[in-house]
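Deliverable D5.2: sample structural annotation.
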Amino acid sequence: MHEYSLMEQVIAHILAELKKVENPPEGSSLEVVLRVGALAVHSEAATRTAYEVLVKGTPLAQSRLNLTIEPVTLTCAACGYAGALPEGTVDPHDQSPLVECPRCGAVTPVQGGRGVEGIELRWE
């Protein structure tokens, strides 16, 4: 259900942007490149299914979704460690998640992983 709501918003945004495009290339296929934070989706498969269901009957009906799930990252101020966190490390419902640095154990806030991080439309 969460993914469906997210994709409703994404598709509404894309459709509004498509209305602004003058003379979109005819006969070409549209690829929607979407980067979403790992905390914004619980299931990649559910996100893809929501997209497929929601684009039916719209100008996006023949488009292809290129979906990238961006990981939650950590940059430790104490030791300088920087890297992606394994899936499931952070509760997606926690508004200000803190985790222990895997190198030094310092409690550190996480970065990224929330919401839509980028949308790009590509005609081929």
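Annotation notes: The longest strand covers residues 30-37. The beta strands are 30-37, 64-70, 73-75, 82-84, 98-100, 107-111, 116-123.
The annotation will be released with the project's public dataset once the embargo ends.
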